[in-house]
Amino acid sequence: MPEYKAPLQDMAFVLGELTDIDGLAALPPFTEVSRDLAEAVLDEAGKLASSVIAPLNADGDRHGVRLQEDGVVAAPGFRDAYQRYVEGGWGSLQFDPEYGGQGLPFSLAVAVQEMWHAANMSWGLCPLLSQGAVEAIAANADESLKARYLPAMVSGAWSGTMNLTEPQAGSDLAAVKARAVPEGDHFRVTGQKIFITWGDHDMADNIVHLVLARLPDAPEGVKGISLFLVPKYLLNEDGSPGERNDCRAISLEHKIGIHASPTCVMSYGDNGGAIGYLVGKPNQGLACMFTMMNNARLTVGLQGVAVAERACQQAREYCRERVQGVAPGQREAGPIVGHPDVRRMLMTMNALTEAGRALAYVGCAEVDRVHGESDPQRRARHQRRLDLLTPLVKGWCTEMAQEVTSLNVQCHGGMGFIEETGAGQLFRDARILPIYEGTNGIQAMDLVGRKTLRDRGTAMFEMLEEMDAFLAEPHLESVLGSERKALLTDAVVAVADATEFLLGASDSATLPGAIAFHYLMLSATVVAAWQMGRAALSVAEDDSPFARRKRHHVHFYLEQILPRYLHHARALRFGDDTLMALPEELL
Prior knowledge:
Blueprint: H1 8-18, H2 35-53, H3 57-63, E1 66-68, E2 71-73, H4 78-87, H5 106-119, H6 121-140, H7 143-155, E3 158-163, E4 179-183, E5 186-197, E6 206-213, E7 226-231, E8 233-235, E9 241-244, E10 247-252, E11 263-268, E12 274-279, H8 285-321, H9 340-372, H10 376-411, H11 423-430, H12 440-453, H13 458-471, H14 476-480, H15 482-504, H16 511-538, H17 545-561, H18 564-571, H19 575-580
Parallel strand pairs: 3-6
Antiparallel strand pairs: 1-2, 4-5, 5-11, 5-12, 6-7, 7-12, 8-9, 10-11
């Protein structure tokens, strides 16, 4: 697999121009943040990603992980790379300085995380899960638990997991059966969890599991779920890891992709019950876990951007080197990058990836504004925007990754179907992204239900107002061209019309679900176009190679990708009839 080089210039551009990282300095938590600081952080992270983490990707895919009697052994080189990550303080970027964090914006940490996942998605999943566990503990645990567990987790010395799914309970968490029985100042947790990412490994000194379970007197359904912190090793008086807790990985899943990321079946309480500690209030576990899951959904969308970026780099390098055929206008055989259809594929990959990066970073910046904004009304508006963008980022960016990694295989031709090129690994690794952290169908239902119908479209109409204001920019037509601007204008109107259509059908039992995916893809395609338009406006007076390339990609997105909105806008008008009218036996 070709070397990975982090796209530092585009990352810094999106952080500076689209998320306005300098503007975050006006918020009390981020007064010392600047674009210069961000670029310095990105540069150092890029070195670790390209020189240490990326070279392990292909070997990790081939070797996978092993489950031994005393636990899971990571792929060769993974442990050393993880220690380099810990020593560099990379796990602590966005966390509270009270627990050893650096207090930097989440949006900057996200850009760094893109590099980990592009370099090696299997490896990057370990810090991703740890990040979510830290967020859930910081937001919900009592001060004693925070003091005992957060410093080592923030540093990365200890990793974290989340344990939701059970054999009989996939996305339906109401069916969770794991139990937690009170015993003094702790609980005894019993049950089995499946699909636990990095549920066991030998890279960190301890693993802190966040486990959903039911108390003995808990009500049925999701209202009876509590959250428990269950460490792999119980702590000694001095806070160091001590006796092994009654929890272990009992098997590993054999997956299509991410072979070097151990996906574990975890058993709790085979010998009397694993000791766990309540996080948050009894029967409020799902709300506590969503502290973790909401940001995790953003970072899964980011994984889509990351694996797409790696696929773009791989395809570009191959197409520039592979000599085959005589391209139009040429007299002799040359690199396939000269062929029009190859260029179509490369441009589609580039434009989708850059649009995904813009959408993901802008969404993640709302986390910082919610955290840092002191004015209640402005904070509430940012919270609505964050809630709205989360399913768009998770859903659209992960669907985009399927297309980009598939095109990468196609660019390689027959060689793309051969494992040694590495194109197949990216294709396989990307396939999990629309599935975990809530399938994209669930993201779509979340968008239409909680994020649109519940507030009668308030958040969406607020965003549409901002898009309309952007379309009124006096120089926009000269930057985009009249036809591209008109297309973007029509697409924004289509989102508004679709939202009104959805609100008008709120009493239907089936229509919101039938049109949800099209509504998500319509909205995200157009919001990404808006961000690409903003990018073009910001480089309008710049004649550097980067600016010319950016404008070219923006124009391609508006001409070749944005028109997809028409499909989604039209399809959602007939979703209920075409999907729900057909008898089940004819499906």
